[in-house]
Design a protein that fits this description.
single chain, 117 residues, alpha+beta, Alpha-Beta Plaits, 3 helices, globular, hydrolase, Acylphosphatase-like_dom, acylphosphatase, Acylphosphatase, acylphosphatase activity
Length: 117
Amino acid sequence: MSVFKKLRNDYVIWHANRIKIPKFLPSIIVRKKVAFSGRVQKVGFRLEIYCIAQRMKLIGWVKNLEDGSVEADLQGEESYIDFLVNCMRSLKRASVKKMTIIDLPIREDEDSFTIVE
C-alpha cells in the first residue's frame, strides 16, 4: 500500500469515527441498494461507508463499479440508512453528483458489513 493511500485511509477512519450518530427512535428494518456517482472513487468513499455502517450495526456490502460509481447494499433500521446516505452525500472530499436508491427485500443470510473488492 502506498504511503498516500495509508494516510488517506487513516484519515477516513478518523473522520468516520468522529461523526456524531444521533439517537434515533426505533424504525423499521429495510434493505436499500444505493448507487453514488460523481467523484466517489479513490477518495476513501467505500471505507467511509464501511466504517459508519459498522458503527451503526448495518449489514450488507459496498463496492466500486467499473463506471466509476460506488454501490452499496444497506440493511438495518431505515433512520440509520437515511443518516448514512446523507453523510455520504455531504462528504467534502467526494462529490456525489447523482444518487439512486432502490428498495430491496430483506435478506436473512447476512450478519455483517463488508467491502467487496
